[in-house]
Design brief:
By secondary structure, this protein is mainly β. The chain has four helices and 15 strands. The structure holds magnesium ion (MG).
Length: 207
C-alpha cells in the first residue's frame, strides 16, 4: 500500500457505546455526535502522552480508528468500506475536567500528544464487524469493547460523515470509546490493542 498523506482532520464520534454514555451520565444522541481533533495531536506508539498543567483529570479512551484511503463525499453505506485504507488502535486522550467546564470540546481533546495512533492494517486482513478494542493501564484491563456494540457501525459512520464533509486520504475516524474510561497519571503506560490488528503503547508524563 502506498504511503498515505498526513490526516487533514481527525473526526471523532462521541457516545457510540451505550455503556460509556451511561457511565458519564449522558443520554445516547439521536444521531452520531461528532467532534474534531487537530492533526497536531497525533503521536506514534512509544511517544509520550504529555499531561498539560491546565488539567487535573486526563483520561484514556481506547478506540478503533478507521483511516480513509481516498476522497469520499456522499458515500453510500453499502460502498463505504471501499474508502477504507485500514484500521488502527487510537487513544482519544481527553482532559475530562476541561471537557465539562468548556462545553466545547476543542481544548479538552486537542492538546499536543492527545491522539496516539497505531500502525495501519488493511481492511482485507480483518473482518471489520468483528473488531474488538482493549485498553490497559499498567497492564490492567480498563476498557473492552467490540465494533458489534457500536450504536453506529463503521459503514454508517463513513456515510454520515461524508455527507457533511469531504473525507480525504489519510483522514482518521475515531469510532468512539467503550465504557471504562479513567485517569492517566505520570509514569503510567497505556495500551490500546485491537486483537489481530495491532497494539499502541504510550508512556504518560507531566509537561
Ligand atoms: Mg472518544
Amino acid at each position: 500500500m502506498a504511503a498515505l498523506p498526513r490526516a487533514s482532520k481527525i473526526v471523532c464520534v462521541g457516545r457510540n457505546y451505550l455503556e460509556h454514555a451511561r457511565e458519564l451520565g449522558n443520554e445516547m444522541p439521536e444521531r452520531p455526535l461528532l467532534f474534531l481533533k487537530p492533526p497536531s495531536a497525533l503521536v506514534h506508539s512509544g511517544d509520550p502522552i504529555v499531561l498539560p498543567p491546565e488539567s487535573q483529570q486526563v483520561e484514556h479512551e481506547g478506540e478503533i480508528a478507521v483511516v480513509i484511503g481516498g476522497t469520499a463525499r456522499h458515500v453510500r453505506e453499502s460502498e463505504a468500506m471501499g474508502y477504507v485504507a485500514g484500521f488502527a488502535p487510537l487513544n482519544d486522550v481527553t482532559a475530562r475536567d476541561l471537557q465539562k467546564t468548556d462545553g466545547q470540546w476543542t481544548r479538552a481533546k486537542g492538546f499536543d500528544s492527545f491522539c496516539p495512533l497505531g500502525d495501519l492494517v488493511p481492511p482485507d486482513e480483518v473482518n471489520p464487524s468483528q473488531l474488538e478494542v482493549i485498553c490497559r493501564v499498567n497492564g490492567e484491563v480498563r476498557q473492552r469493547g467490540a465494533a458489534s456494540q457500536m450504536a453506529w457501525g463503521i459503514p454508517a459512520l463513513i456515510a454520515y460523515i461524508s455527507g457533511i464533509m469531504t473525507l480525504e486520504a489519510g483522514d482518521v475516524i475515531a469510532t468512539g470509546t467503550p465504557a471504562g474510561v479513567g485517569p492517566l497519571r505520570p509514569g503510567d503506560s497505556v495500551e490500546v490493542e485491537i486483537p489481530g490488528v495491532g497494539l499502541l503503547r504510550n508512556p504518560v508524563k507531566s509537561a
